[in-house]
Amino acid sequence: MRVVDLIRKKRDGEALNPSEIRFLVHGATTGEIPTYQLSAWLMAVLFRGMSSNEIDILTQAMTDSMSLSAVDAVCGIVPMFHAMCWGLPFTANMLGCKQVYPSRYMQPDRILDLMASEKVTISAGVPTIWQGLLGEIKKQGRPPEGFKDVVIGGSAAPRSMIEAFEKMGVG
To answer: Is 150 exposed, middle or buried (0-12, 13-18, 19+ CB in 10 A)?
Structure first.
């Protein structure tokens, strides 16, 4: 499957099938599809729209890619203008997830206290945020109870960061 063919298909007003939509979401979440191609596809969607069926499949593919469900509590530690945060709140709303935001209090100890008190299960942030939080987790001796998944975006996460989360059992 080639992204350029899916861009043309959508540009020409055709509906994408479920495997094509899942391919796009997988490529977007793994970085296998360059952002300029995703932008071109999104522009075609803007002008041509999506059918209800395509929207349903896209929503399911997005939630599957992050393993989100209605029982999750999501903490987006990402600026609202950042691409990840724009998708995360909407996806969480569609699923009925609890959403937790740190407001202006971006100190690692305060964020971890908030995550613990609100029982956050999944969180998203840039490596700079996670670097500080990993230091605080180390100081406290463990991650917040129930914290199972982390999404790191904006730039590549250092291998040591990924290994530190894996060692804690956070995916």
So the answer is: buried
